[in-house]
Design a protein that fits this description.
With about 80 residues, this protein is mostly beta strands. The protein contains no helices and five strands.
């Protein structure tokens, strides 16, 4: 995938989320979503955390060289999207 700006969409369900990176930027919500502009679409497993995240959080986790994980979490649930370069 090319370096650049993308919009992140999430389609949540009970046991997995579908995460989508889309080329269309500067949109508000999913009103102008166009699946033909997706550059990545992948399912990630929902994890139950031992602790609670009080505020909706998106962060990068991990310190390995050329590798990280995008974590999205809230309450006692989170998902992780592995990223490497």
């Amino acid at each position: 995938m090319a370096k650049g700006r993308y919009t992140l969409y999430a389609i949540p369900s009970t046991d997995k989320w579908t995460l989508v990176l889309n080329k269309e930027t500067d949109t508000w919500g999913a009103f102008a979503y166009d699946q033909k502009k997706d550059v990545l679409r992948t399912d990630v497993k929902v994890n139950t955390r031992p602790d609670v995240i009080d505020v909706f959080t998106i962060s990068f986790e991990g310190t390995e060289k050329n590798k990280t994980s995008l974590m999205i979490g809230w309450d006692n649930k989170d998902v992780h999207l592995p990223i490497s370069w």
